[in-house]
Amino acid sequence: MYINPAWRILTIGDGDLSFSYSLLKNYCPKALTATIFDDYDSLATKYGEEHFQQLQAQGCEVLTGFDATNKQTWGQLNKQKFDVVIFQFPLIPAFNSAKDYQQQCANVSMNTLHRRLLRQYLLHCFNEFLDSNGAQLAFITSKDVKPYRQWNIEQALTLNTDINYLGYMPFEIEKFPGYKIRNVDRDKHVKNTQGITHVFSRLIATELDNKLTMPKYLSADYCSGCRVGPFHTEQDRTNHIASKRHQQIALFEQQWMRDIEQ
Asked: Is residue 79 within 8 Å of residue 129, measured between CB atoms?
């Protein structure tokens, strides 16, 4: 992940605030505002308040109880003043009960719920958080394994918007000493599975142009959703489309199209 120290950065949903603190300590951005989904008491109970206190001691604004999809939770956030917004390993909060799960997943899959979260995040980044005269960059760092790669971050989130997917760069956790990737609603941290940072902007050209890779599976001779290809014949493509693997991915895409058209 490339970080320009001249950037004004907003971090979203930073579990125990260890990413924000490492970012501040090791990269010294021009300005940093950190947010977490938990309220302060939950943070202190689950993870401790060490990083919260360290960030505040260095003049970093920290907002608790911050839901990127709900404007009512943003408090006094200094909007439209950031160059970059970063969302590390996003996951929707755990369900409170089986009934809660059944209600929220009555007509959609977990796949769709995660896409909703990330689409709302991107829309709010460009409409509410980012300075139109700044770098205009939104980052999503995610694991490159199932089920995360089935969210189709590269293509699904920007449909019917003016937001561009610019490509990805590797996320190397060792370059952020002290950062622990937290499970949602748990006090444990997850294994450091290889992650990649997807980059979005309303701009076509940015300062990251020579640092990003466009996935080869987005080209026409691949099935981008399944990341299968290249197909050398139409029969190869036909056989893949008939496969169970593709049918599952196609179902996710159909559900998503219905969801964003509502």
From this structure: yes
